[in-house]
């Protein structure tokens, strides 16, 4: 049996003061023109159609007069103070000369793992302007220790289909209510709105805890990386832009190849990610010669390899991705120079910041230029070389004994 249409009238309170990191962009508000097939909000002479089999929650901010309205079998209207509906009395409406049928758009397609549907915000909830720092694509979607906000006075519907059974978050704010404990979130899920707002096989779980490690925490979206990239490429034409450089880099957690530079830093228990990021921004990135360079820095898990074979195990590293706004043959050259400065800084001061070594890769638009630099000698490399030397000596000894007739 279907659940009947629910009309709730509530006083909407301002959002609680909480450290919000990522904010959901789409909404299913009645007043949002893009939510209607005609690209406008219904007016008095219109007949409003909600598809009967589509589940939806709709926030209504103002009072409306309508000719008729067809409601779905399962949904809700969330009415702000003073909002409501009344039958059109036939009087002249200057903004609605010719009526028609206006249909509510399908809200099923909005995916939790679509990076284009999230935006970074300050702890106050204000939009954070795009600056010198950016995030790799997997980290544009809420990570396991992030705070998530669905703006006050908005309704929404989001598909949580995931490769993970549980999607962990620090907190979720819905309709101005901050839910920052497992108990408060569990209580909200039992209410009437949650099934209309969230659908899909992934279960959202609020933990109330932030990253416990000063060296940073991996995002936790790697399992849904293919889903994130599919959503991102679907929004941008289903293919990555062609980079200028002939051998683009592929940062961990990023969907498309980039020109510029990447650095992988090995660290000790003394490493503090925020402290080191502040140093890079203040001492290097802020220099006038690097005005067009953008940087992403985070902890990632890099698969271990031996003789080109990828191991099942992985090791945490601090990944720094650098890109610049230079074009043509100069693409990536400013990022390359900054990467070289960072590596020099690591050589001189890395130990004081808990950095035990680093490796750099570069791809620029000038030539087929893919360079690698390192301020530490890899133990694997040393072991490989020594192993090959002993192997050659062993085979040489066997060949010598064979020719002497000592071996048959």
UniProtKB/TrEMBL annotation:
The keyword Transport belongs to this UniProt entry's keyword annotation: yes
Superkingdom of source: Eukaryota
Any single biological process term in GO: protein transport
Keywords on record: Cell membrane, Membrane, Protein transport, Signal, Transmembrane, Transmembrane helix, Transport
Gene Ontology, cellular component aspect: apical plasma membrane; endocytic vesicle
Compartments where found: Cell membrane
UniProt keyword Membrane present: yes
Signal peptide (UniProt feature, chain positions): 1-18
InterPro entries: AMN
Transmembrane annotation, as ranges: 380-402
Topology within the bilayer: Single-pass type I membrane protein
Name of the protein in its database record: Protein amnionless
Gene: Amn
């Amino acid at each position: 049996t279907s659940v009947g249409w629910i009309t709730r009238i509530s006083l909407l309170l301002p959002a609680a003061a909480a450290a919000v990191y990522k904010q959901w962009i789409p909404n299913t508000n009645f007043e949002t023109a893009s939510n209607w097939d005609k690209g406008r909000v219904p007016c008095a002479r219109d007949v409003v159609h909600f598809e009967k089999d589509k589940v939806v929650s709709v926030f209504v901010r103002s009072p409306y007069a309508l000719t008729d309205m067809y409601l779905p079998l399962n949904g809700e209207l969330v009415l702000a103070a003073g909002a409501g509906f009344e039958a059109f009395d036939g009087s002249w409406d200057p903004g609605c000369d010719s009526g028609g049928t206006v249909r509510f758009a399908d809200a099923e397609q909005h995916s939790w793992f679509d990076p284009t549907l999230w935006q970074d915000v300050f702890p106050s909830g204000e939009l954070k302007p795009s600056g010198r720092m950016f995030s790799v694509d997997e980290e544009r979607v809420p990570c396991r220790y992030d705070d998530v906000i669905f703006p006050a006075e908005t309704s929404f519907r989001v598909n949580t289909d995931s490769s993970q059974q549980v999607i962990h978050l620090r907190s979720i704010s819905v309709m101005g209510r901050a839910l920052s404990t497992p108990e408060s979130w569990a209580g909200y899920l039992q209410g009437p709105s949650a099934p209309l707002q969230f659908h899909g096989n992934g279960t959202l779980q609020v933990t109330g805890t932030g990253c416990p490690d000063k060296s940073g925490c991996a995002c936790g979206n790697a399992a849904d990386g293919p889903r994130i990239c599919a959503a991102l490429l679907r929004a941008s034409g289903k293919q990555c832009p062609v980079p200028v450089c002939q051998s683009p880099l592929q940062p961990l957690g990023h969907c498309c190849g980039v020109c510029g530079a990447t650095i992988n830093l090995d660290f000790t228990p003394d490493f503090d990610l925020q402290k080191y990021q502040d140093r890079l921004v203040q001492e290097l990135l802020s220099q006038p010669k690097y005005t067009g360079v953008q940087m992403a820095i985070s902890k990632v898990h890099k698969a271990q390899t031996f003789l080109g074979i990828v191991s099942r195990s992985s090791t945490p590293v601090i990944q720094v991705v650098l890109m610049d706004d230079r074009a043509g043959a100069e693409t990536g050259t400013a990022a390359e120079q900054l990467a070289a400065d960072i590596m020099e800084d690591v050589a001189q001061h890395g130990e004081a910041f808990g950095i035990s070594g680093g490796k750099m890769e570069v791809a620029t638009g000038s030539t087929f230029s893919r360079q690698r630099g390192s301020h530490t000698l890899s133990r694997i490399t040393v072991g490989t070389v020594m192993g090959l030397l002993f192997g050659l000596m062993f085979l040489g000894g066997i060949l010598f004994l064979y020719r002497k007739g000592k071996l048959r």
